[in-house]
Amino acid sequence: MQILKALLISIIVCIIMDVPLNGAYSTFSQHNSYFVMIHEYSYLFKYFLLVVIFTFLIIRHGELMGFGKIFVPLLFVAGIAGCVVVLCWYDAVSPDKIVQQRIWGKTEKSWDDIRVVITGGRIVHTNESGENEESVKLEYTMQFKDKTSINFWDKIDSVEKLNNYVKEKQINISHNFVDDKLAKELEEHIDGDVFVAKQILQIQQ
Prior knowledge:
By secondary structure, the chain is α+β, with helices and mostly antiparallel strands. It folds into 2 domains: 2-93; 104-201, no CATH class. Helices cover 44% and strands 28% of the residues. It contains 7 helices and 8 strands. The protein has helices at residues 2-15, 18-31, 45-61, 68-87, 156-168, 180-184, 194-201; strands at 36-38, 90-93, 97-102, 105-110, 114-128, 131-144, 149-151, 173-178. Helix 1 (2-15) runs antiparallel to helix 3 and helix 5 (156-168) runs parallel beside helix 7. The N and C termini lie far apart (59 Å). The model has no long low-confidence stretch (mean pLDDT 84). Keywords: Membrane, Transmembrane, Transmembrane helix. The chain crosses the membrane at residues 7-28, 40-59, 71-92.
């Protein structure tokens, strides 16, 4: 009964977590003057949080026996580690710099460090377990003079803001070919206005 109660409480907390998490990201962005911030793994936070809350309640109110005395605390620590990794994994842009944050450290680039911005889209074919699968790769990639790169493709409104600023800075943009099939089905693979996306990718309307 204690396990079911702990699980129910954990699920409820995680369901309502999206709003405060998005609010926290928004506040953090404003504080650091980021006008674009991509946190592609943030959706995993609530699942790690679910593990943390559930295991905490079990440790606090449940009765651990045998292997559970080792496994549950380890799961609790793993959940906390997952939360930290997700929160410390983002790419962001401000008027002064481009930031790539990872758990092991932060890398900052200036706008003068950009060599070129590349846009494009293609369908990637993979063969796993004997089955042919297709995945889509869209990019708005900043390539830097030190040969590193960051792909800032995200929600269309974010990419549009970034694209407008790149044009203001008069940075060279190279538009790679977009797969014909992808161009026709683009609306299915983006989050936002397909007309704006086609403008960014230079797809003929």
